[in-house]
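Hi, here's the filled form for the chain we discussed.

Project: internal
Contact: R.S.
Residues: 385
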Amino acid sequence: MQLDQIILQIGSQAFTMLDVLLAGAALALVLILATLIVTWRAQRNRKIETLETMRRASELEYRLAEMAGSLRNFADQSQGAQAHLTRTLDERLDHVGQRIGLGLNDQAERTTQSLTHLYERLAVIDAAQKNLTSLSTEMISLKDILSNKQARGAYGQGRMEAIVRDGLHARAYAFQPTLTNGMRPDCLISLPDSELKLVIDAKFPLEAFNALREAKGEGDLRAAEVGLRGDVSKHVKDIAEKYLITGETHETAIMFVPSESIYADLHEKFEDVIQKAHRARVIIASPNVLMLLIQTMQAIFKDSAMREQAHVIKIEVMRLLEDVGRLKERVGDLQKHFGNANSDLEKLSLSADKIVKRGLRIESLDVEEPEKLAEGKPKLVSSHD
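And the returned structure, exactly as it came back:
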């Protein structure tokens, strides 16, 4: 193949074998130059990277050395801090141990005191339980008493008499007296400044109350209420007819109910019975109400006694004033005597002063010698000459 033979036609441009070989040689040369340049740049970059790596390694070694020193300092500081922390913890633990010990001792003392108080309260509770047991026994006996009509009357009479005895003088009341109509009330109280007597009746109908409390059905309840109204109304009527006597007893009588619960039930559920008793001039009184009434009467008795003794006090005051007047006169006479005696004492004092002065003048004089006195020529010479 010839070198000038056309082997490639591109448009109007024709390329021979020689052109192609020259172009290939130029391309090969360019590739070799590019390869050399790339290789040189790669070697340069590797040298730069090697230097940079060595610089970084030296910096890393320096930083590692600094870090090692810092770590040693930190280790030393940590060791010192740990030792200080250990000492502080030991001290704190000792302090906490002491406080815990003191707290445990205090808690033990408080626990002992609490247990002591608990034992005391248990003893009190035990005593209270015994009291409750005895009280339940007494309540059972009280129930037995109240179930018996005669025993119930004696029980009510006893409570009423105890209240009256505690509040009034023995001359102010009488138990089981006889009235002009032959009736015998449970108690008569004499009113001050009056001939009338206040009647207290201590009997009460309990059967209807028991029936009311034991009623279960509505029919039994209504029947018990009707029975209660009837019994209490009948008892109020009996008191009014037997004990309210004109000119002998007070116009109002007291029906004593020896139970606060019964009294409360009457006022709460049977207001009509209370009003009927008021219209019949019968006052229903519980133990507290009767005690208040007795205390009021006690004050009335005291006022009456003071009024009765007022004239005696007035007479005694008049006599006392007369005695004071006589005492005043006698004090005046005594004052006159003291005045006369004082005048006499002043005169005596004046005479005594004169005598003293004369004695002093006599003492100041000199008497002549005995020879001159023997010659019969006595002469007094003043010591001041």
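Let me know if anything looks off before we file it.
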